[in-house]
Specification:
By secondary structure, the protein is mainly α. Helix content is 74%, strand content 0%. Helix 7 crosses helix 8 and helix 8 runs antiparallel to helix 9.
């Protein structure tokens, strides 16, 4: 009983560290944030970091795995509602993406965009976590695209996985450009193209 309680407490503390780290890193970046700052904010003794994580690389990998696990749940809420036409579910998801990247809520920002360029050359574990998480996101989008094609909601000669990769890449790129330009123009353009691809509205 005590062992189970201890394990649960340890898991809760680990999750708290990851949640706080995500919020801090979204604001400052990975390299600019010291472990001490994260642990202090989490109320965890500075010397206990390696009790929860084997290394900083392992911590970074778990940070991304935790982010993608939550993101998969979010994807499922948008794409798994069979009472809504599949192409509309896809549009709802990308509308959420646009809104979340345009608003002022830092916690809604895309950790993939924030870290991809920064960590892929620094940590192989984090690069692999990014790659796996991105592939899983694309696969879930592709399943919804496939459903839309099967239902006759899309008139596209592209295979579902190819169209899903195109849309996902479009939105990642638009999010990055929007950060660089400090303008939502690229996201608005991405939405117009997405509507065209989904057969919901032509780009003018």
């Amino acid at each position: 009983m005590n062992s189970a309680r201890t394990q649960a407490k340890s898991a809760d503390t680990r999750k708290k560290i990851l949640d706080i780290a995500r919020a801090v890193i979204l604001g400052k970046g990975y390299a600019a944030v010291g472990l001490n700052e994260i642990l202090t904010r989490a109320g965890v003794p500075k010397g206990s970091f390696y009790h929860y994580f084997k290394s900083k690389d392992a911590f970074g990998r778990e940070l991304l795995e935790d982010y993608f696990a939550e993101y998969r749940d979010k994807l499922e809420r948008f794409l798994g509602d069979n009472s809504v036409p599949a192409n509309r579910r896809l549009l709802n998801y990308f509308e959420y993406w646009q809104e979340s990247q345009c608003n002022d809520c830092q916690e809604e920002k895309c950790l993939v965009v924030k870290l991809s360029a920064e960590v892929t050359d620094l940590s192989e574990q984090m690069r692999q976590a990014l790659q796996k998480g991105m592939e899983q996101s694309q696969q879930r989008i592709a399943r919804c695209v496939s459903e839309a094609l099967d239902n006759g909601e899309l008139a596209s000669a592209q295979p579902a996985d190819e169209l899903a990769r195109e849309l996902y890449s479009l939105w990642l790129g638009a999010t990055l450009i929007s950060k660089v330009n400090r303008s939502a123009d690229a996201l608005h353009l991405a939405m117009g193209i997405t509507r065209q691809r989904l057969g919901l509205e032509a780009v003018h």
